[in-house]
Amino acid sequence: MTSTENLKYLKLTELAKSYKALLFDVDGTLADNMAAHKASYVAVAQEYAIDLDPNLIDETAGWPTVAVAEEIARRYHKSFDLEVFSKRKSAIFIERFIQDTKPIRYVQQVLLDNYGLKKIAVVSGGSRSTLNITLAVIDVKDKYQSMVCAGDTPNGKPSAEPFLLAAQQLGVDPKDCLVFEDGDPGVQGAIAAGMGWVRIDKL
Prior knowledge:
The protein is of the alpha/beta class. It has helices spanning about 5-15, 35-45, 55-60, 65-75, 80-95, 105-115, 130-135, 160-170, 185-190; strands at about 20-25, 30, 100-105, 120-125, 145-150, 175-180, 195-200. The strands form two sheets. It has a five-stranded parallel sheet with strand order 5-4-1-6-7, with helices on both faces. A two-stranded antiparallel sheet has the order 2-3. α4 (about 65-75) crosses α5 (about 80-95).
C-alpha cells in the first residue's frame, strides 16, 4: 500500500473496532472497477443507439443493474427489455473487464484482518454470478458469512432492506453493523437501516 492508502487503512481499522459486523459494498468499495462498469454500460447503451453519459452510473452507484437500465430508458426516452439490457451489460463486463479487476487494498485488508473476528457480509446491487467472479479475482471469496445482492430483497439500495437482511443473516443488531460504501445510495440505505457507515472514497 502507498502511504496515503495506509493512512486510510488505519482510519478504517480504528473505525471498525467498536462494531460487531462489517458490511461491504463491492464495486468501487472492495473492487476498483467502477470505470469498467461505466464502460460496460456505455457499450451496451451504444447497441441501443444511446449515447450514455457515464455520470449517470455515478448517480446510481449501488443500484441493481435492472434499476439502472430502467433509469437509462426513462432518461433517454427509450423502450427496451430491461432484463435483456442488464444481462448484456453483465456479459460485456465479464468478457472484457472482470479478470483485470484490482482490489482497493486499504478496504480489502480491513476485511481480511477481521475475517474470523467479526461477522462479515457483502451487500451489493450486482448479480450473484458476477459478484462471485469479482470476489474471487480480488481474493476475498469465502471470506464472509452473508452475501446480499440484486433480487434478494424487494427493493435494493437506497432502501434499508439489503442491509437489514444481511444483519438478520449474520444475527447481529443493525446498530452493531458498520457499512463500507462509495456511493450515496448505499449510505442512504445504511442510515435508513440504523447502521454506522463510512464513505471509503471520502476518507
